[in-house]
Amino acid sequence: MSTVDRNSVIADEQLAVNHIYDCVDQDQKAVESFRSSSLSDCPDAGLSPHPDLPREYGRREGHGGHHPLVIARIDLLDDPDDRLTWYIGRATVRDRQSDLALVKWTSKAATAWRLATPDQPADVRRQRQLRCSGSQVLDYSDTEIQVINASGETVPAPAAEDEPDLFLLADLDLARDGAMRDIVETIQRHQLRLVADERKGVLVIQGGPGTGKTAVGLHRVTWLLDNQHFTPEQVLVIGPHKAFLHYVRDVLPRLGSRGVATVDIAELWPGDIRGTDPVTARLIKSDERMARVLHNAVENRVRGDLATDETFNFRGARVEIDKTELVRLVEAARGAKGSYLIRRRRFIDTTIDWLMTQYTEATRVKKTDDGIRTQLEKTSAVSALFNRVWPSVSAEQVLRHLLADRDSLAAAAFGVLTLDEQATLVRPQARRVGDEPWSPEDLVCLEELRWLLTGDNERRYQHLVIDEAQDLTPMQARSLARWCPSGSMTILGDLAQSTGIRQYDVWERLADVLAAAEGWHIAELGVGYRVPAEVMKFAAMLGTKVSPSTAIPVSARPSSPDALEVVAISRQRVIAETVSRAQRLAMKDNDQARSVAVLTPSKYEFLSELTHRITAAQESTLPGIGQQITVMPAHMAKGLEFDHVVVMEPHLFDESDRMGLRRLYVALTRCTQSLTVLHSSPLPAELGGPNKKPVVNAETAEAAPSPALERFGDGDGFRAALKERTGVDRKQAAHARLKHMLVAELYGNDRVPQLDTDFADIVCEGEDGVGLYLISTQLVDTYTELRTMAPRLLEAAWADGREVDRLFLVLSRQPQDLWAVDVIKRLYDVATIWKTETGWAGLSVDTALGQ
Length: 851
Ligand SMILES: Nc1ncnc2c1ncn2[C@@H]1O[C@H](COP(=O)(O)OP(=O)(O)OP(=O)(O)O)[C@@H](O)[C@H]1O
Fold this sequence. Notes:
It is built from 30 helices and 29 strands. The chain is α/β, with parallel strands linked by helices. It starts with a helix and ends with a helix. Adenosine-5'-triphosphate (ATP) binds near residues 214 and 639. Adenosine-5'-triphosphate binds next to helix 4 and helix 6.
C-alpha cells in the first residue's frame, strides 16, 4: 500500500477515534453538569460514566499524555447487529443513542475477535491493530483473517509471512521505570487465550523468565472480574515479596480493576517471626508429612488412658461415672466428625448428659435446665476431669510442646518421620508461649493446627492468583487450598526459577495439593518478552541444568550485539569496576531514563560497601539522572525487571546447591536491554567456565547416532539393544523436559502414567486401553525421518510384551512434512503428537493426553 493510502487510512481511523473521545467527553460533561446542579453533598459513587477507565486513558492529547483509549478495530463478515466494524479499547463507551462506540477488551466478543485466526475465523474479516499516542492515531497494522476469492467465496486468508510485530517490539523497547505496565495493546494470542481461559479448577501457567506470566495473571484477574466470574473481594493476588507488589501495584487499577487485595506471601500467615530454623528442620516442617505429625499431635492430646472412676458431689447429691463409661464417651467423641474442639464439646456434652441422668435419679428432680448443666460442667472436679482427658489447647501450646518434648514428638511422628528427622525438630522450650522463637515454617504449622483445633479457616476466597508459585512449600499449599475451597486458582511460575526451600521437577506435587474437585491443568508460555536473545542464550545451559523439565523461552526481541558483556576482573577491582559500569549504564541512553540494577550473590560480604559507594557516586556524578541504580541480592529481584543489569561474582552463587544456581539464573534473566557479568573467579561451567564435569551440549548430543542394531543372536539380544538405545535417548535434558510436560498433562487428566519402562518412555493405561509413548527430541521433520522413527514404537511394543492398544510418537515440535503424519498412522498405526507454544497438537492428541 502506498504512503498516500496509508495516510488516508490513518486519517479515517483518526476520525473514528475522535468520535469515541467525543462520546467520552459528552458523558463527562453530562456527569459534571449533573453534579453542579445537585446538592453539594451529593455522593460521587456511581456517577462516573466510565468507572473502569482510569483518567489518563480517557483524556485527549495535551491532557492525558500518550496512554491510548482505543487499541484495535475489527471488521466482520457478518454480524447479527448488522454492524461490520467495531472498535476495541480499554473501556466500554456508548454514543448519544446508547449504541456501543467502543467495546472493552475484556468483553467476550472482543476476546473472540482478537483470538480469531484464519483457521478459526469467528466471522472476523480483518484485525487492525491501532498504534495511538493518547487520542492521536500514529499507525496501524492489519491481519487478514478471511478473504473473498476470485469466485466470490469467503476463504481463510493465506498464512502471513512470519514478520516481527513492530508494535510489540516498540513496546518492549520502552524504558522500564520500576513499575509494571499493562499489555492490553500488544497482548499476544497465546497470552490472551490464557487470560480468558474459563476452565474450572487450577490453571498452572508455566513459563520461563519474561514470558509474561505475571502480566497474564493480572490481566486474567480483570478479565474474570469484568465477566462476572468473581467480585474484587473474592480474589486475592499473592506475590513473592514487597518489592514485587510495589512493582505491579499500578497494573490492576490501570486495567480498571480496583478493590482486589494483593499480599506478600511472607505476610499471609499471621504471627511474629522471631526465629529461623536450620535448613534440615525447615525441609521437614514444610513437608506434607508434617500435616500428619500435627494431626497426630492434636489427637494425642486426648487422653482416654487418664480416665478413672469418678465420683462428684453436686448440689448435695453424689454422681458417679465409671472408667468404662468414660472411655466409651471419649471414644465416641473421638470417632465423630469435626475439629478437635468441636469433638471436645461433644465429649463434654455427652458426659454431662450422663452425669445429669445420675443426678436426676439420685435427687428425683424431674426437670433440669441449662443453668444446672453449666453449673455441673464448671464444678472444679468435673472441669478438671475434662481438662485432663480432653484438654482445651491452643495451636501455640500444641506446637511448643511437640517441638520440645521428645516423647510427644516420637508419638506423633511414629511411622511418619525417621528418628533422625525427629531429632532435627527438637528444640528447647522458651520460658513462655509468647517467647517461642517461631520461624516462618512454624507460622504455617500454627495455621494448620488452628484449623485442626477449630475447623475454621481464617480467610476465604473464591479465586487465588499466586505468582512465583514454584516457591510454595507443600504445607503452604495446603493452607492456601483451605482458604480457597472452590479450587479456582491461577498459578504462575517457573520451576527453573524455584529458589524456595522445596524444589520441584514437575508441577503435579504442588498442583495436586492446591486443586479441589475440579482438578488442575497446565499451560506453558514459551516466548520471552523481556530478555534479549543473546542473554537468554548465555543463561540457557544454566536454566536447563537447574530444571531439565522446563523449556528455555525463545526471545521475541531482536538480536543486539551490545546485549551481553562478560568481564573477568581482579578481585581487588570488582567493586570499583561495578560502580563505574553501573554509572556508565545509567547515563548510557541519556534521553531515556533507563533503570539499572546491580545484583549480588545472596550473602555478599561487600553488599553494604557497594551500596554505599554507588549511592555516593550517584550523588556526586549523576545529579540529573532521575533513575536510581538499585543494588540488591539477586533473590530480591525475583519477578522484577530492569533495563540494564550487572551481575556480580557468579561463582559466589553457591554452585554446590541447586538453589544457588537457580538464584543465579533469576539474576541473569532480569534485564530488558543489557547484561554485564563481572567475575573475579572462573565462571560456573554452565556459563562457559571450565568444565568440572563434561558438559553435554543438548543440541549436538541429541543428534548423536544410536547404537547399531543390526545383528542379534536372539530376541533377548535385540531387546537388550533396544533397552540400551532407549536409555541413551533419555540422557538428553530436552528429552526429560518433554517427557515431564507430557506426564504433567496425563496426571492433570487423572491418568497415572508409568515412566521409563525398559523400552518405552511412558506407558499409560486408561479405560480406553494401554498407550505406549516414545519421545524423540531429534529433528523429525520429513516423511523419511518419521518413517525411520515409527517402527521403533512397534519394536518397543513387541519387546514390552504387553497388549498395547495405541502407539504415540512424541516430538518437540511439529514435523515439517505435516502430511506425512497421516501416512505414518496408516502405515504403522503410530499417532504422532508434538509440543506447541501453548500445549500439544497432532493426531489423536486428545487420546494421547488422556482427555
Ligand atoms: N504481549 C506483550 N506485550 C508487551 N510486553 C509484554 C508482553 N508480554 C510480556 N511483556 C513484557 O515482558 C516483561 C516480562 O513480563 P512478566 O514480568 O509478566 O514475565 P514473567 O514471566 O512473570 O517473568 P519472570 O518469571 O521472570 O518473573 C514485562 O515487561 C511485560 O510487560
